[in-house]
């Protein structure tokens, strides 16, 4: 998607001066970022720069210390009524979170459930979809991530790469508008990284809106519409993969890229 086309649309995610502190430590120091529908944004930066915290704020696993984040036209965590801000109810937060799929470094599948049931479980429990139908959809999703033949396997019978692909299918089962990936390949043996990136590439090509925290520079170069480099809780620079990865403007970005390449 061209930048021009993106700008005309309403952002799916809009962060304005997002601040997060843990105690006295400020880990996000005013993040401004917009992600448009269908965009793939890769977040790069050294360990501790606040990337995971930013994803967790979007998904409401943490609460903002300051600033605002919108998903679609809704403020995250708070709601404005008659000019006053109120904290959202737990049910409302759960509803907001259901719009977002998140994939973690560790796959966290239910160990006592087959791949198929791992994928079908949330639609049954949360969306009250009849189990037979949820399992049908789950099988389609497993086919999409290349694991139809492994539907009846338990997590312990699957490789790390296969487990992560099940985790992606599980997130997709809730039909999210937005997918957040937090270093989805960094716990994998190197030979298993490619199969997970391939699924993510397919998802991107299908138009899914994605924010991906990753050290996979090759993936960012090929798949990202935009690359955002963070350091010390701020966005140091952002731009097209070509701008940020080939022609970084900031010394901090250059130093980071030299280290990870
Ligand atoms: P990144 O994903 O870029 O590695 P993180 O968002 O995980 O960075 O962490 C940013 C900083 O916030 C780190 O210094 C980390 O130690 C700190 N941090 C993250 N979560 C917590 C927490 N729950 N309590 C205290 N400090 C935290």
UniProtKB/TrEMBL annotation:
Its EC number is 7.4.2.1. PROSITE patterns: ABC_TRANSPORTER_1 (PS00211), ABC_TRANSPORTER_2 (PS50893). It is a peripheral membrane protein. Pfam families: ABC_tran. GO terms for molecular function: ATP binding; ATP hydrolysis activity; ATPase-coupled polar amino acid-transporter activity. Gene3D superfamilies: P-loop containing nucleotide triphosphate hydrolases. InterPro entries: AAA+_ATPase (IPR003593), ABC_ATPase_HisP-typ (IPR030679), ABC_transporter-like_ATP-bd (IPR003439), ABC_transporter-like_CS (IPR017871), MetN_ABC_transporter-like (IPR050086), P-loop_NTPase (IPR027417). CDD domains: ABC_HisP_GlnQ (cd03262). It catalyses: a polar amino acid(out) + ATP + H2O = a polar amino acid(in) + ADP + phosphate + H(+). Its main location: membrane. PANTHER family: AMINO ACID IMPORT ATP-BINDING PROTEIN, L-CYSTINE IMPORT ATP-BINDING PROTEIN TCYN. This is ABC-type polar-amino-acid transporter. It comes from Auraticoccus monumenti.
């Amino acid at each position: 998607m061209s930048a021009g086309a993106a700008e005309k649309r309403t952002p799916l995610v809009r962060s304005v001066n997002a601040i997060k502190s843990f105690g006295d430590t400020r880990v996000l120091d005013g993040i401004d970022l917009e992600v448009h529908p269908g965009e793939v944004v890769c977040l790069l930066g050294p360990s501790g720069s606040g990337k995971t915290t930013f994803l967790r704020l979007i998904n409401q696993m943490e609460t903002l210390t300051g600033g605002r984040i919108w998903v679609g036209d809704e403020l995250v965590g708070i709601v404005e009524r008659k000019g006053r801000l109120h904290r959202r109810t737990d049910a409302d937060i759960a509803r907001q979170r259901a719009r977002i799929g998140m994939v973690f470094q560790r796959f966290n599948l239910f160990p006592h459930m087959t791949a198929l049931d791992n994928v079908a479980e949330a639609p049954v429990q949360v969306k009250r979809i009849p189990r037979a139908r949820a399992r049908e959809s789950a099988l389609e999703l497993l086919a999409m991530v290349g694991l139809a033949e492994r539907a009846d396997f338990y997590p312990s019978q699957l490789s790390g790469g296969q487990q992560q692909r099940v985790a992606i299918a599980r997130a997709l089962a809730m039909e999210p508008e937005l997918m957040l990936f937090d270093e989805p390949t960094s716990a994998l043996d190197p030979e298993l990284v490619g199969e997970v990136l391939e699924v993510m590439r397919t998802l991107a090509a299908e138009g899914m809106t994605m924010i991906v925290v990753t050290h996979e520079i090759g993936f960012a170069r090929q798949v990202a519409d935009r690359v955002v480099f963070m350091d010390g809780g701020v966005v140091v620079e952002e731009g097209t993969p070509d701008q940020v990865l080939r022609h970084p403007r900031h010394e901090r970005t250059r130093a980071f890229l030299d280290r990870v390449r």
